[in-house]
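Q: Structure tokens for this one, please.
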Amino acid sequence: EGAEVVEPFVKDEEVNYPIVLDPEQSIEKHFEAMYGLPTTYLINSEGQIVRRILGVFPVDKMKPKLEKMLDDEKQST
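A: Here is the predicted structure, written as tokens:
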């Protein structure tokens, strides 16, 4: 989807984490990612993909996954 669809959705859902639109697929190429729409990537502070979710991933299910990832990141430093 383009920004005209994504931006209102992000605002309506009160998404409070970064969203990247990649129409040239440069991020997918950089991470040698699998192709599929939609795709969600959780990327750690070292730039490594720690989770790849193909397909729809509801916002309410994302929060616990992000919290666990952040906790794991804190424990490893």
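A few notes: The chain has a mean pLDDT of 80. The beta strands are 39-43, 49-54.
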